[in-house]
Amino acid sequence: MESKYVISKVLSNNVVITERKNKIYVLIGKGIGFAKKKGDFITDEDTIEQRFAAIEDEDKENYTRILKDIDREIVAVSEEIIALATKRLGEELNTHIHIALADHINFALYRIKEGIEIVNPFLFEIQTMYPNEYAIALSACELIEKRLNIRLPESEAGFITLHIYSGRVNQSVNDSLKYTKLIKDIVVFIENEIGISLSEKSLDYARLISHLKYALYRIENGKVLENILLSSVKRQLKKEYKLSKKICQYISEKINKDVPEDEVGYIAVHLNRLLNSVDR
């Protein structure tokens, strides 16, 4: 009896919600829900391509609400996207994504149907900071169009990216967005300091954003990446180092953490590359 899953809801031919030992499981497999109904058993393990223990105990009520209030086709495609992300990334995502992603997609589709424009001011930063998750999000948008016949704008792929990334690192989407916004704010700060609008198409611009992402992680978590060239940077890149100190003071004020001098030096090097690439 242990291998039996009791169907509580059929979302599509390929996705079913089941229960076993008082736990909710999402089962995904080609044709797994075909001709099935609530109360049926799934016992043939070979039909199960992917299986998720969907929800922690404290979130069961919210997931039950999702299953009740959101169209089953939307929940089904959300679960397929989670399965796709899990497979491509080779890792499990935090179970809260089963609630958050379905809820987000449902609201996104509502806004599209109502003609409400979806704006994502951080799209380029998201693409640069989370390239693997963004590639999955583009596939997710294709899957949504295939299943629901609704095309999502590229801006929406950016938001789905944040959900996937947040599921990987076990943090809220708001926290992921906070760092994305902070990096954009830092770029604006740099632009104001040097009096130049930076080109998003520049490779050095992308490198700077990527470095800032990892630098913020290290600063937040008290990790120091030793900079063996620090003394040379301070001597040879005086202008960039001075600017980097201003930037790091700005970062320190924003996240209430001291920025190690090693990080100041690394950012100065990226600034040097960036400034050299700017067509004055």
Automatic annotation (TrEMBL):
It comes from the Bacteria. Gene3D superfamilies: CAT RNA-binding domain (2.30.24.10), PRD domain (1.10.1790.10). Pfam families: CAT_RBD, PRD. Residues 69-174, 175-280 form the PRD domain. Keywords: Repeat. GO terms for molecular function: RNA binding. GO terms for biological process: regulation of DNA-templated transcription. This is Transcription antitermination protein BlgG. It comes from Fervidicella metallireducens AeB.
